[in-house]
Amino acid sequence: MLKDFFSKKKKYATIPREEAKQDVPEGLMQKCPQCKKIFYRKEVHKHLKVCPNCGYHHPLTAWERIDSLFDENTFVEWDKNMISENPLDFPDYAEKLEKDRKKSGLNEAVVTGKGKINGFPSAVAIMDSRYRMGSMGSVVGEKIARAIENAKEENLPFIIFTASGGARMQEGVLSLMQMTKTSIAIERFSEAGGLMISIMTHPTTGGVSASFASLGDFNFAEPGALIGFAGRRIIEQTIREKLPEDFQTAEFLLKHGQLDRVIHRQEMKEMLTTLLDIHQPGGVSE
Amino acid sequence: MKDQVLPFEKPVVELKQKIAELKKFTSDSDIDLSSEIQKLEDRLEKLVEEVYGNMQPWDRVQMARHPQRPTTLDYIQEIFEDFIELHGDRLYGDDEAIVAGVAKYKGTPITVIGHQRGKDTKENIRRNFGMPHPEGYRKALRLMKQADKFKRPIICFIDTKGAYPGKAAEERGQSEAIARNLKEMAGLKVPIICIVIGEGGSGGALALGVGDRIHMLENSTYSVISPEGAAALLWKDSNLAQKAAETMKITSYDLKELNIIDEIIPELKGGAHRNIKEQAKNIDKVLHASLQELISLSSEELLEKRWEKYKNIGKYTTLSS
Ligand SMILES: [Zn+2]
Fold first, then answer.
1. pLDDT in tens, A273-284
2. What is the dihedral of CA A187, A189, A193, A198, to 10 degrees?
3. What ranges of residues constitute the C4-type zinc fingers (chain A) (predicted)?
């Protein structure tokens, strides 16, 4: 799973800028990893980084996602300054964190906060795969759990966009236990009547797919996203057979009853707006 | 069955053999070697202390995986009465990599669930080496909800390399099954006590692991990835698993230090398999104490404390902005 991600990731065009805006320099070209056609970067960005030819969804950074969803100047970030420690004294971990901080302009692999989506106030957590492959350590778990608690306190719906290779190895069992922490937070939120929408984006695997990503009242995915528990290579080695091309894609999961819908990025805001509207207070009285 | 010897305990076994040979020799001849034998036995005593009192993480990994290590069913038989095994998830099938049922513990009705490895190849194939499919986790959840309905405490034994990485497992929603257990266990209004008895392999272990208490047998392990897997990712060499076992902090002592588990349950010298009855007594002591503490709590207190327990796991810093 991690390997697959690595090899694919190289083909992506990334924009290593803090809170990247859509002002990509003119003249820069970008090749679509799926249809191999070459486009102006600007053209691709105009379409929310979806290939104008084949519909391939390039990864969005957390801030690009926020810009694509929230009404202008409504987003307020939470826990921006929370950063990871190196609790196991894991070799090279501190350096890797620092490197990704510079590369992504983020303090960790998830941005949390609240804002308005077509006027509907919502709490969100948006993962960014540029930071340690979106892996979940103590900070990612804590920020997501706090965002859910905040949503509960403020009576907000909670929306999460996942993009993660799973639990973060360098924090050992502390990472594993973040699966539990976030899942308990979701249970408490759910018990209080909170609405949770999970949108799995490329890639959502391992400990993240096996915890909060799968725990929405609604579980959606972006087209073509890789979603699964175990990595393709490990499965192939275990069962000694070749897996189908579309194995563990969003479409594969939809076919096997594991998702509510696959939603095109350009329809995402509208779909969320409709769902938020449907879940406005009201309904059948108790 | 002949005891399987782990590499680190070889000196002990060799010395024991030597003593046995000498004893046999003296009984077959007229030469008196009793003082030599006594010396060797004194040395053996020291050696046992040295070898088992100084186990390295990799030694514990091997002990946790020992083919003769007692399994969930062994402990169920020793610790509980009137165990009735129950089968199936009511959705797809019955996964024998997890066993579950109702029983009595010192007179109190309980539900007990655990990963189940096989004792030989044939049983291991039937039980998929203790690596569950989604239906195993769904069976566990079904019976946990039953326990909740009838207000029975739940005891989980954790012993798996991990959830099975297979095609069918993915198609039937391995991720969803694990995730659902984590969320649903969070809301069960009965005490949940989890005991890692062998390997606690990642999400596949965690899916039975949302407890009000988590205990570990001294030589068991709990990890986010196997030492072999970690070594392959870190150093592109699965032969460095021994080093990874140290780096990853996966022993009961490591997890106690990280404040993740509640208690380390001591093991017999040479490992739990040396005497299942005695080992079960050590588990029983800790289990009994935990249950006493937990049954006195109201369900609201129980859920609140459960949240507090996990909420506090994690290490981070907040920069002043
Ligand atoms: Zn294309």
1. 999 999 998 766
2. -80
3. 32-54
Q: Say if the Cβ atoms of A184 and B165 lie within 8 Å.
A: no
Dist CA A101 CA A96 (whole Å): 8
Q: In a 3-state reduction of DSSP, which class is residue A110? A: strand
List CB contacts (< 8 A) between A190 and chain B.
183
Q: How far is B218 from chain A (nearest CA, A)?
A: 17
A54 is in an annotated binding site: yes
- Per-residue pLDDT tens over the stretch A36-65: 999 999 889 999 999 999 999 999 999 999
Is-contact B116 B157, C-beta < 8 A? no
Judged by DSSP in three states, A9 sits in helix
B189-218 per-position pLDDT tens digit: 999 999 999 999 999 999 999 999 999 999
Residue range A82-111: average pLDDT? Answer: 96
Phi–psi pair at B264, nearest 5 degrees = -95, 125
Burial of B32 (0-12, 13-18, 19+ CB in 10 A): exposed
| Average pLDDT, 10 consecutive residues per value, chain B (321 residues) | 83 92 85 87 93 94 96 98 98 98 98 97 97 98 98 98 97 98 98 98 98 98 95 86 95 97 96 96 98 97 98 95 69
Q: Is B236 at the interface with chain A, CB within 8 A?
A: no
Q: Which CATH number fits domain B61-312: 3.40.462.20, 3.40.190.10, 3.40.640.10, 3.90.226.10?
A: 3.90.226.10
Distance of CA B82 to the CA centre of its chain: 23
Q: Supply the mean pLDDT for chain A.
A: 91
Residue contact B180–A238, C-beta within 8 A: no
Q: Where in chain A is the domain with CATH 3.90.226.10?
A: 59-278
As a whole number of angstroms, the distance between CA A63 and CA A268 comes to: 16
**Contacts of B120 by beta carbon, 8 Å cutoff, 6+ apart:** none
The DSSP 8-state label assigned to residue A170 in this structure reads G
Contacts of A31 (CB under 8 A, 6+ apart): A11, A37, A38
The two three-digit tokens of residue A232, written as one number: 């393709």
Which residues, in sequence order, are bridge partners of residue A158? A123, A196
Query: Measuring CA to CA, how many Å separate A214 from each of A128, A220, B181, B321?
Result: 18, 9, 11, 34
Amino acid present at A281:
P
From residue A51, alpha-carbon distances to A13, A45, A59 in Å are 12, 9, 11
In the chain, the amino acid numbered A9 is K
CA–CA dist B224, B227 (Å, integer): 9
